[in-house]
Write a structure and sequence with these properties.
It contains nine helices and six strands. The protein is of the alpha+beta class and 263 residues long. It has two domains: 89 residues, no CATH class; 137 residues, Alpha-Beta Plaits (2-Layer Sandwich), CATH 3.30.70. A hairpin with a 2-residue loop joins strand 1 and strand 2. The chain is elongated and about 70 Å long.
Length: 263
Amino acid sequence: MGGNGDQPRLPKEGIDPDHPVYALPHQEITALVSKVSLREFGQEALKANLEDITWLEARVRTHHGVLETASISHTVIPMRFCTIYQSEERVHEMLAECCDGFVSTLERLRGQQEWGIKVYYDSNTLTRKVEQVSDRVQALAAEMELKSSGVAYFVRKKQEGIVAEEVERLCAECAQRSHDRLASCAQDAVINPLQGKELTGAQDEMILNGAYLVDEEQLTAFQDELESLREEYGGLGFSYAMTGPWPPYNFVRTEDGDEPVGD
C-alpha cells in the first residue's frame, strides 16, 4: 500500500476474527496484515476450509473489505486471498525484496480505479430481431409458404440454423466491439472467463466479463461510452452491468507468500 503518509482506517477484525488488521511499514510502502490461527489456516485445515462455501465467503468479504477501506485514502496492491507468511520477519523480507517493484506498481495504479463490465444477451429478443431483419431468414420464410409440409420442414430447419449462426455472430461482434470501445477509454483492460447463470443469478447468458483500469479523470468518458453501447445494442436484447470501483485485482502481480505451515 502507498499513499499520503497517513495510516488508513482499519477494521478491528482481520481474516481471523480473533486478530486485528495492523500495518507493517517499510520505506515508502506499508503492508496490511493480520495474524491467523493454525486451527483454521494450517495446511490441512486451510485445504478443508477452502471447500466450505460459508467459511470462504465470510473470509473473502473481510479480505475485500480491508482493501476497499484502505483504497479510499491510499493506493493499494491487492495480494492474493490467503497469502500466508510464517512470520512478521518473512513479511519484512518480502517487502525488502519487492519494494522497488511495489513502488513502481503503486505509481502506475495511482489515480486509477478498476471497473467491471458484464454483458448479457436475451436469447428470445435477439432471435426475434434476427428473424425480422435477416434477408436470408426472410427469403427462407417466403420459400416455406410455397413448399409442401414435408419439404417445408427441411427449409425450416435450415432457417433455424441460419438464425443460430447469426445470433452467434452478433454476440461475438457485440462482445468484441464493446470490449474494444471500453478499453479505448481505459489505461488497461482484461477479459475474464465467462460466468454461468448458476454463479451470476442472471436469467440471460453472459457474453463478456471485462475488467477495466480507468483513470479517475477518464471515468465520465468511460461511462459515456458504456451508455452509447447500451443505446446501440439494447434494442437487440443486449444488456450491460457495471460494478465497482474495485481494488485493482486484475491489474497487479504479487508474491504468493509462503506455503501454509503445518499443524
